């Protein structure tokens, strides 16, 4: 892969201001449709789930409704399982893996768990196949009090009444070649820093919580996903994306401190999935299926070990 050494927007070594952010935003073109590809699927699921609009993003000229789906047989005595996707809008299988789970697998948890699924947290970025929102903010570094990212703030408001009742939260992501070719160089330019090329891991991996690790939970997901697609190996330094591998296909981040989506609840079981859709060994269908398998394994483990 060829790594860019500079970014076309801004001055090297100088953090972007409003003018550079505006220039970047104007360079982003709609490349696919939220209504056609996501909302239409949610509409087909309405007969089986309670669907609510938990917020709306006003990015003129467009307005994006944000949807959450819940099981119809909600029972306050049952544990809550939270599934989020599309926090980074360009990570396609996060969105469609969540929808696939709802369509094909959610029924098996009827009477056993309450499901809360927000399949596309960042629809503006979904349409433009980008990581950021229109203000060049990463929603997955913005899950904190007084969040500057409307996507993150809306999800936190929706989750707030449930926060201390969630048993399991799985946040569905991808790591793509464009991380290295496009998004990391843009991040470095935005922040006025040099871009340091890295490696993209080939395969599926998980991000556990440094503060409250759950190795058996992570292992159960890895074992389930390995039946669908391959697991990312550690690099020559024993790392994945610069973090030490603590078990096969597992690294750890400080979820809450970094403002990551997976840290927004008090759930006992938390994880972030990462699929590699650009691998020659994986198809888009496999990536979606891997995400759905991860969700099922996560719920199954939580139900078997409620704590």
TrEMBL record:
InterPro entries associated with the record: AstE_AspA_cat (IPR055438), Peptidase_M14 (IPR000834)
One MF term in the entry's GO annotations: metallocarboxypeptidase activity
Domain (Peptidase M14): residue spans on this chain: 30-287
Cited PROSITE patterns: PEPTIDASE_M14
Cofactor: Zn(2+)
Gene Ontology BP term (one): proteolysis
Keyword terms of this UniProt record: Hydrolase, Metal-binding, Zinc
A Pfam family per the record: AstE_AspA_cat
The family this protein is said to belong to: Belongs to the peptidase M14 family.
UniProt name for this protein: Peptidase M14 domain-containing protein
């Amino acid at each position: 892969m060829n790594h860019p050494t500079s970014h076309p927007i801004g001055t090297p070594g100088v953090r972007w201001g409003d003018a550079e952010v505006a220039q970047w935003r104007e360079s982003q073109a709609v490349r696919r449709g939220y209504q056609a590809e996501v909302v239409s699927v949610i509409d087909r699921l309405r007969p089986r789930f309670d669907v609510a609009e938990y917020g709306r993003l006003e990015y003129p000229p467009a307005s994006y409704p944000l949807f959450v789906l819940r099981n119809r047989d909600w029972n306050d005595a049952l544990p809550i399982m939270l599934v989020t996707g599309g926090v980074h809008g360009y990570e396609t299988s996060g969105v469609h893996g969540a929808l696939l789970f709802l369509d094909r697998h959610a029924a098996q948890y009827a009477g056993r768990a309450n499901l809360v699924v927000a399949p596309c947290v960042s629809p503006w970025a979904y349409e433009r196949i980008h990581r950021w929102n229109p203000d060049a903010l990463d929603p997955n570094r913005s899950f904190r009090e007084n969040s500057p990212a409307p996507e993150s703030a809306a999800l936190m408001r929706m989750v707030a009444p449930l926060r201390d009742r969630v048993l399991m939260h799985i946040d569905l992501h991808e790591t793509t070649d464009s991380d290295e070719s496009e998004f990391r160089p843009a991040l470095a330019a935005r922040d006025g820093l040099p871009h340091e090329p890295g490696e993209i891991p080939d395969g599926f991996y998980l991000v556990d919580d440094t503060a409250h690790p759950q190795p058996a939970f992570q292992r159960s997901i890895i074992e389930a996903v390995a039946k669908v697609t391959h697991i990312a190996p550690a690099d020559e330094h024993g790392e994945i994306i610069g973090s030490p591998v603590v078990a096969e296909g597992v690294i750890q981040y400080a979820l809450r401190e970094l403002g990551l989506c997976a840290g927004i609840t008090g759930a006992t079981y938390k994880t972030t999935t990462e699929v590699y859709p650009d691998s020659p060994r994986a198809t888009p269908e496999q990536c979606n299926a891997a995400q759905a398998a991860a969700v099922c394994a996560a719920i199954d483990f939580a139900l078997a070990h409620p704590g």
